[in-house]
């Protein structure tokens, strides 16, 4: 049998991930700075410009609580969607409800920040995160639901490219509506936010919500879950026989000891690479504003450049895995990312030492972010398929929950850990790459313990043959 990746359908499913990363990019780019400003005023009687590092542990705690909710909810919604059967499918009900509630709540976060309502801002952040978890697990599970196991790295690359297009849209929005301009135009000594132009911070959130709803509706009208599942039965069964696992996956009964060990090692390594990557991403906006003294638009350009590197990695990730296997593809990505962090460390304590507070954003960091984007995309495009490779088709939501539980556990801990480190008088934002490097070394060491599983070559349609345009 020849397996064909239906690229048209995969791109359509990718609209779900487009909406996810669109919202998360706006959330991660703006909310930590909102919290820094609110805590600075609440606890120090002024703005955060002189107390930014002292409040980072509080920022980290709030960001971690959001992720703690995700850690609990992702596996729950994964299991629930596995067991759900409706005329619109098992994933779609959760996608639609999660989308509309989170999209309704999200635009009110900057409104409450604008009026200095700390409790309201944090509450709306929590509501958005909780309902995004209802959306996220089922949306991500759609791809492995309808894609045979040997094709999932390539399909995941397409899905992630769609997601990064969403992230790029959010970043472009941020460049046009710049947070630092809003924060830098305070009137009077009381830092009265209500007198500023609220649309400078409201429009990115509002536009992100509208685009997320449009992407979810497009997905709903184009993907008939039940029909596709019936059509794909034969190919899914054939793909099951070609899984890259130590021992055959059984639909019934417990996992084999070898497969369970493989799962635990993947999740442990994933935990540490998210400790690294999410740690620096959470504080990169504050690094730009408070350490370099630069405009947030510089960091948003940095995000776009990193996204371009990621798109390259996603595009080639499936091909690399076909040549050297998923394990060594992930190890290569981790190694590239680690080298990027090490270069950042060297630059920080040599060339960039005088850049702190200069008001400029060094071009060398853009280069580092581009290379890191390639590395981490090789990791992400192959690691998720490795996890869902270890389960049968009726447990995809559950194992997707495991994958995201590991990432959310890291994202719960790393903001608090890094924010607490920043309390030390000798540690500042310049130590971000040091923290990331330590976590990445541990991740790579753990992943190297995974057994490299070699499988028989499967005939996969390539070139124009691979463009199956049937719905």
CATH topology heading: Growth Hormone, Chain: A
Major sheet: size, sense and barrel closure?
none
Strand content: under 5%
CATH architecture: Up-down Bundle
Task: Give the topology, please.
Blueprint: H1 7-44, H2 56-83, H3 92-105, H4 108-114, H5 118-145, H6 152-176, H7 179-183, H8 199-222, H9 225-231, H10 233-240, H11 257-291, H12 296-324, H13 326-348, H14 363-388, H15 396-421, H16 432-447
Helix pairs in contact: 1-2, 1-5, 1-6, 1-8, 1-11, 2-5, 2-15, 3-5, 3-8, 4-5, 5-15, 6-8, 6-12, 6-14, 11-15, 11-16, 12-13, 12-14, 13-14, 13-16
In brief:
The protein is mainly α and 471 residues long.
Characteristics of this structure?
single chain; 471 residues; mainly alpha; Growth Hormone, Chain: A; globular
How does this model look, in words?
The chain is mostly helical and 471 residues long. α6 packs antiparallel against α14.
């Amino acid at each position: 049998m020849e397996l064909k990746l239906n690229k048209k359908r995969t791109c359509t499913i990718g609209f779900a991930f487009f909406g996810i990363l669109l919202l998360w990019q706006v959330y991660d780019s703006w909310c930590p700075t909102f919290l820094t400003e609110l805590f600075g005023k609440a606890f120090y009687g002024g703005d955060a410009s002189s107390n930014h590092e002292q409040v980072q542990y509080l920022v980290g705690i709030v960001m971690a609580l959001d992720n703690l909710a995700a850690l609990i909810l992702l596996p729950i919604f994964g299991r629930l969607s596995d067991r759900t059967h409706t005329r619109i499918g098992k994933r779609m009900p959760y996608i639609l409800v999660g989308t509309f509630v989170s999209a309704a709540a999200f635009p009110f976060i900057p409104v409450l920040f604008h009026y200095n309502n700390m409790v309201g801002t944090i509450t709306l952040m929590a509501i958005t995160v909780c309902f995004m978890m209802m959306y996220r697990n089922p949306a991500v599970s759609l791809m492995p639901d309808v894609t045979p196991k040997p094709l999932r790295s390539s399909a995941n690359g397409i899905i992630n490219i769609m997601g990064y297009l969403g992230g790029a849209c959010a970043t472009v929005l941020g460049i046009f509506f710049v947070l630092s301009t809003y924060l830098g135009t305070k009137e009077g000594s009381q830092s009265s936010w209500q007198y500023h132009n609220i649309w400078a911070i409201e429009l990115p959130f509002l536009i992100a919500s509208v685009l997320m709803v449009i992407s979810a509706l497009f997905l709903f009208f184009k993907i008939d879950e039940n029909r596709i599942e019936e059509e794909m039965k034969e190919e899914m069964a054939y793909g099951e026989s070609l899984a890259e696992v130590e021992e055959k996956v059984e639909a019934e009964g417990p996992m084999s000891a070898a497969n369970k060990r493989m799962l635990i090692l993947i999740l442990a390594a994933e935990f540490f690479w998210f400790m690294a990557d999410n740690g620096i991403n959470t504080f990169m906006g504050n690094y730009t504003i408070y350490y370099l003294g630069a405009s947030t638009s510089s960091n948003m350009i940095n995000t776009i450049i990193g996204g371009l590197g990621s798109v390259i990695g996603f595009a080639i990730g499936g091909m690399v895995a076909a040549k050297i296997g998923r394990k060594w593809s992930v190890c290569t990505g981790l190694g590239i990312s680690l080298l990027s962090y090490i270069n950042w460390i060297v630059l920080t304590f040599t060339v960039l030492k005088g850049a702190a507070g200069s008001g400029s954003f060094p071009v060398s960091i853009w280069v580092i972010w581009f290379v890191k984007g390639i590395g981490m995309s090789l990791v992400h495009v192959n690691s998720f398929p490795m996890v869902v490779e270890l389960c049968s088709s009726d447990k995809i939501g559950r194992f997707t929950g495991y994958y995201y539980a590991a990432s959310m556990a890291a994202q719960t801990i790393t903001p608090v850990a890094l924010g607490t480190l920043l309390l030390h008088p000798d540690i500042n934002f310049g130590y971000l790459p040091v923290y990331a490097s330590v976590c990445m070394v541990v991740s790579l060491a753990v992943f190297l313990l995974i057994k490299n599983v070699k499988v028989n070559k499967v005939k996969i349609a390539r070139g124009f043959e691979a463009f199956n345009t049937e719905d």
